[in-house]
Amino acid sequence: MYAVRLTEIPFELVPHEARILLCRTPAGFPSPAADDLEEPIDLGEWLIEQPAASYVMRVDGHSMTGAGINDGDLIVVSRAKAPRPGHIVVALVHGDRTLKRLKRMDGRLWLVPEAEGYPHTVVDEFVEIWGVVVGLARRYV
Amino acid sequence: MSTPIALIDCNSYYCSAERAFDPRLKGVPVVVASNNDGCAIARSDEAKALGIKMGDPIHKIKDRIKAHGIRVLSSNYTLYGDMQRRVLAAVEPFARDIEVYSIDESFLDLAGFEDRDLVAHAQAIRAQVLQWTTIPTCVGIGPTKTLAKLGNAAAKKNPLFDGVADLRDEPIRDWVLERFPVEDVWGVGSATARKVKELGIHTAAALRDMPVKQARSMGTVVLERLVAELRGVPAAVVETIEPQRKGMAVTRSFGQPVTDFDVLMGAIAQYAMRAGEKLRSHGLVAGRLTVLFHTNRFADRPQYGASRTLSLYPMTADGLELVRVARRGAEHAWRDGYAYTKAGVMLEDLVSAELRPRTLFEDEADNVRRERLMAALDDINGKFGRFTAVPGTQGFKREWRMRAAAKSPAYTTRISDVPVVRA
């Protein structure tokens, strides 16, 4: 049998309380850091500039190791950024999601791998550029 | 000239959200099933073309599913909720104000944009949402919310509109209203539809032309205001439908820090019941529930705080349903090893119970039973003190046993579930 004692806080106070929490200091000496408090570093926020148009994906395969993107890496893919030659992009090729660099060669657009032994793909009506890679995340150990 | 209002609505929203991350669902019939994989609650155009109706029980359409290779997915509200956030963020710069009406439709206040070509403006909104989220939408524009909603339905139905119907234009408005069945007008319930049809009113146009006095005499304030709105006069239908309150919260601190999930959940269940009681006393239902809890931020102990926001679909004031959803959020957010000192439940997206968006597959009889149960609970608790009658909250943290056989991953909200891209 459990028991919980509840202390009622009036509804009107709830939103105020959240704000007070950050600036309240214990009685006694005020913290000299109180005016200079900053939020901890948020890598996600730094990596993902436009969260509403960005999607995180996991890389499976080795065709982009030349571009520094390894098997198992997380990438941030933006749909707000217009794809241009030179960008690394996520594309749908016949409905399969693939990661390649977009390049213009001989007046045509190509999806180009950055490792030996993978084919180039010309961008035609069966290819849809889904988004532009704007970030990369990897953890070691 | 009144402020133009737009209604933006996502096409086959759940199916479209699924297609965003599973390209193989493109061009094939897709059906999303309700909780427990019971009924069809969303259908792609291809599935609609095969005659799959809203609310069709999945087991009854098994043959067609097999014959046509229909893809049936369990509902993934985590995904739909996150995609809704993205849709709203894409729309936001295009409107002075946004009023979320349901998970896939929102009203836009276009005050300040009147000087523009609003059809082009609406097309720009659609393009932005499609670009950011891959989700197709339709937009209706009108001088009133009722007309915006009607325009949206027209834009969806008739490809001639190319996704945007501007009912501020009178010839277009007349054309649409004359073809619009009265029972499909937003806010016209089945009882009202029956009554007006007896008077020979079968279209939105006929409803518009009905004498105001007659509308008033038929009983509801809403009907009278609907008539006004169909005439292009804003009559605050939504405001009568929607209360001033946008949200309510029940948040408490514990006397003793809580380290056990069952105990925490017992408290949260009480708050959810209390929040439901508040909702019902105001005649409201909620569309969104947030459950939150955290440790004492001033104690010299490990700190953790979490909140989870979940959609209530269909919108509800049913305490037991609120407890169920709150539990889902709490189980997801729970971390062992902390001493929690505060918890709460917040409800948002509040609308009048009478005019909440209905989901077509609802079991009316069951709804009535649940409402009666809730009324009885309120009665008992009112008479004998709060929390005399409460749901049994023993044995929480049971595995969430909802049947969801074909649920897609939480593509956008869980690192372990993100889409995979071949390199």
Automatic annotation (TrEMBL), chain A:
<dbReference type="InterPro" id="IPR015927">
    <property type="entry name" value="Peptidase_S24_S26A/B/C"/>
</dbReference>
<keyword id="KW-0227">DNA damage</keyword>
<keyword id="KW-0234">DNA repair</keyword>
<keyword id="KW-0808">Transferase</keyword>
<protein>
    <submittedName>
        <fullName>Translesion error-prone DNA polymerase V autoproteolytic subunit</fullName>
        <ecNumber>2.7.7.7</ecNumber>
    </submittedName>
</protein>
<dbReference type="InterPro" id="IPR039418">
    <property type="entry name" value="LexA-like"/>
</dbReference>
<dbReference type="Pfam" id="PF00717">
    <property type="entry name" value="Peptidase_S24"/>
</dbReference>
<dbReference type="GO" id="GO:0003887">
    <property type="term" value="F:DNA-directed DNA polymerase activity"/>
</dbReference>
<keyword id="KW-0378">Hydrolase</keyword>
<dbReference type="InterPro" id="IPR036286">
    <property type="entry name" value="LexA/Signal_pep-like_sf"/>
</dbReference>
<comment type="similarity">
    <text>Belongs to the peptidase S24 family.</text>
</comment>
<dbReference type="InterPro" id="IPR050077">
    <property type="entry name" value="LexA_repressor"/>
</dbReference>
<dbReference type="InterPro" id="IPR006197">
    <property type="entry name" value="Peptidase_S24_LexA"/>
</dbReference>
<keyword id="KW-0742">SOS response</keyword>
<keyword id="KW-0068">Autocatalytic cleavage</keyword>
<feature type="domain" description="Peptidase S24/S26A/S26B/S26C">
    <location>
        <begin position="24"/>
        <end position="134"/>
    </location>
</feature>
<keyword id="KW-0548">Nucleotidyltransferase</keyword>
TrEMBL record, chain B:
<dbReference type="Pfam" id="PF13438">
    <property type="entry name" value="DUF4113"/>
</dbReference>
<keyword id="KW-0742">SOS response</keyword>
<dbReference type="InterPro" id="IPR025188">
    <property type="entry name" value="DUF4113"/>
</dbReference>
<dbReference type="Pfam" id="PF11799">
    <property type="entry name" value="IMS_C"/>
</dbReference>
<protein>
    <recommendedName>
        <fullName>DNA-directed DNA polymerase</fullName>
        <ecNumber>2.7.7.7</ecNumber>
    </recommendedName>
</protein>
<keyword id="KW-0227">DNA damage</keyword>
<keyword id="KW-0234">DNA repair</keyword>
<dbReference type="InterPro" id="IPR043128">
    <property type="entry name" value="Rev_trsase/Diguanyl_cyclase"/>
</dbReference>
<comment type="function">
    <text>Poorly processive, error-prone DNA polymerase involved in untargeted mutagenesis. Copies undamaged DNA at stalled replication forks, which arise in vivo from mismatched or misaligned primer ends. These misaligned primers can be extended by PolIV. Exhibits no 3'-5' exonuclease (proofreading) activity. May be involved in translesional synthesis, in conjunction with the beta clamp from PolIII.</text>
</comment>
<keyword id="KW-0741">SOS mutagenesis</keyword>
<dbReference type="InterPro" id="IPR043502">
    <property type="entry name" value="DNA/RNA_pol_sf"/>
</dbReference>
<dbReference type="InterPro" id="IPR017961">
    <property type="entry name" value="DNA_pol_Y-fam_little_finger"/>
</dbReference>
<dbReference type="InterPro" id="IPR001126">
    <property type="entry name" value="UmuC"/>
</dbReference>
<comment type="subunit">
    <text>Monomer.</text>
</comment>
<dbReference type="InterPro" id="IPR036775">
    <property type="entry name" value="DNA_pol_Y-fam_lit_finger_sf"/>
</dbReference>
<comment type="similarity">
    <text>Belongs to the DNA polymerase type-Y family.</text>
</comment>
<dbReference type="InterPro" id="IPR050116">
    <property type="entry name" value="DNA_polymerase-Y"/>
</dbReference>
<feature type="domain" description="UmuC">
    <location>
        <begin position="5"/>
        <end position="189"/>
    </location>
</feature>
<dbReference type="Pfam" id="PF00817">
    <property type="entry name" value="IMS"/>
</dbReference>
